[in-house]
Amino acid sequence: MSTWFLTGASRGLGAHWAEAILERGDNLAASARDAATLKPLTDRYGDRVLALELDVTDVAAVDAAVDAAEQRFGGIDLLVNNAGHMLHGTVEEVSAEQARAQMDVNYFGALWTTRAVLPGMRRRRGGRIMQVSSIGGLVAYPALGIYQASKWALEAMSQSLAAEVAAYDIHVTLIEPIMFPTDLAAASPQAPRMPAYAHAHEALYAGAASSGFVPGDPAATARAILALADTPNPPLRVLFGINGLDALRTEYAGRLAGLEEWDHISRLAQGVAGRR
């Protein structure tokens, strides 16, 4: 029996994951901004659930929640950082408060919970940390720049972390959901739109329509996350959903082509222009 710590457990993908974790017999420390939303889990699964009311942006509260979970279950085997929201707006449209809140939840919230579980995982020399990123953590689309910035930050931190903790048999995996019909967009803030950026919003929707992304079944992601938990050597990154590889091939081919095209500027900056 394993013990999980799952943030954002009351809705969206997290709700499916919480149910699947408990259904298979594991323990779960489930967090949400409103602990009352977790009552159906505690009613059904009893002492195998620790319902936590948690704002992941509050460092002291995160430390206390992780400590409570470790006291209750004896340790945390798997952390899933799922809490987050998706700010919709162009770079100029979003307010300073919205931008900071986006980073506080999606990046710093995951950072605080990750830091909180690491001492226990290092002592036990083992653990899994699953960071819920996004296809937007690997590519960037217009009108979602601040949201995607929070995920790009999560990607960099997690890749460095994976190298840092491998010696302790702690595995880090970035989960990259592509397109799933959840309430994420409806429950997330939107910046007031400026007429000057109508083209950017239109480009986002046009890009989504032409991407080839197909909405997936949110319930099916529960089977995927349990399969990851049971994999002896999990990947650093894994896409949840189909057709993302095509988008990534285009993205990375374009990056390399651009860097190669402007390599003469790179060499000029180095002081070796014209050399090969």
- What is the class of the largest domain in the CATH system? Alpha Beta
Overall 3D shape: globular
What are the segments in which pLDDT stays under 50 over at least 5 consecutive residues?
Answer: none
Under CATH, the topology of the largest domain can be stated as: Rossmann fold
Quick one: biggest sheet?
7 strands, parallel
Number of domains: 2
SSE order? EHEHEHEHEHEHHHEHH
CATH superfamily membership of the largest domain: NAD(P)-binding Rossmann-like Domain
Helix content: 40-55%
List the strand order in the largest sheet: 3-2-1-4-5-6-7
* Number of E strands: 7
Walk me through this protein's architecture:
Helices cover 50% and strands 13% of the residues. The protein is an alpha/beta fold and 276 residues long. The radius of gyration is 20 Å and the shape is globular. The protein is built from ten helices and seven strands. The protein has a seven-stranded parallel β-sheet with strand order 3-2-1-4-5-6-7, with helices on both faces. Strand 2, helix 2 and strand 3 form a beta-alpha-beta unit. It folds into two domains: 240 residues, Rossmann fold, CATH 3.40.50.720; 31 residues. The longest helix is centred in the middle third of the chain and has 29 residues. Helix 3 runs parallel beside helix 4 and helix 4 packs parallel to helix 5. Belongs to the short-chain dehydrogenases/reductases (SDR) family. This is Short-chain dehydrogenase/reductase.
